[in-house]
From TrEMBL:
It comes from the Eukaryota. This is Uncharacterized protein. One of its GO terms (molecular function) is metal ion binding. Keywords: Magnesium, Metal-binding. Belongs to the methyltransferase superfamily. Type-7 methyltransferase family. SABATH subfamily. Pfam families: Methyltransf_7 (PF03492).
Amino acid sequence: MASSSPIYLTHISTLSSCTSAVLLALPCAHVELLVATIIMVAAVTEVDAVHVAQQEAVKNVFCMEGGQGETSYMNNSQVQSRNLEMVVHVLKETLDTIRLPRRPEKLLTAADLGCSCGQNTLFVADAIVQHMTDLYTSRGHTPPEFCFYFSDLPSNDFNTLFHLLSGGRRRRRYFAAGVPGSFHDRLFPARSINAFTSTFSVHWLSQVPGEVMERGSPEYNRGKVFVHGATAATGAAYRRQFQSDLARVLRCRAAEMKRGGAMFLVCLGRPSSTAPTDQGSVRFLFGAMFQDSWHDLVREVRG
């Protein structure tokens, strides 16, 4: 194990005024080990038909606002764009860990999980293609062809993304394909992807923990739609759900990634010293927004 490549785990606390992020760059050799570790601490529970139905509903309706209108993701993702620019050097360091064979492959594959439909995913794709082209050239090799997969839930606005890929004067340097599906499930054939990226996506849960919606349950999150300020039992339920979800994400990628590949993840996070019920400044961005919207809907129903 002494000769193994390192796992990069960096806490970024100054990405913006309202968010913090955990950035993970995981060489392929360690993915299965990390999966095993997470699975050991993840709660193993029976998933009943109601929870399965809820999970399917999330896949069908949960997505960023499509199109190019005033409220679209494309016109409201500047914070994510600035954060990506701040960590692109770590993306390049991650790509440097990819082990190329003596006779380098003529085709490199990469996938962005949770790509949405704006310019940010194209920024990531361009950065990967450019860096790997430079890496090949610096080693005296002819640059390979690239195939880049853009993956998100079926409800994502892939049409807008495809227009961006093919429109204007932008010269695309890779073959592109859309892959609808959840990153909590398998998306690609075994050992088929050299590099995975996912930015500001994997912190989203696959479903609301069932027990927090059950009246009478110790984990019941009464009157709330967010974990901040909830009871310790509710926080533990959300933690178990995240551990289970992340284990699934990594287990699927471990099967799909080529040997010697790498994974680059950026997601919202919190200091490890705090409980799940203390979401820090993130609560102002997500908690207050969701909670206020929920209360507005309740008031409308009550008239």
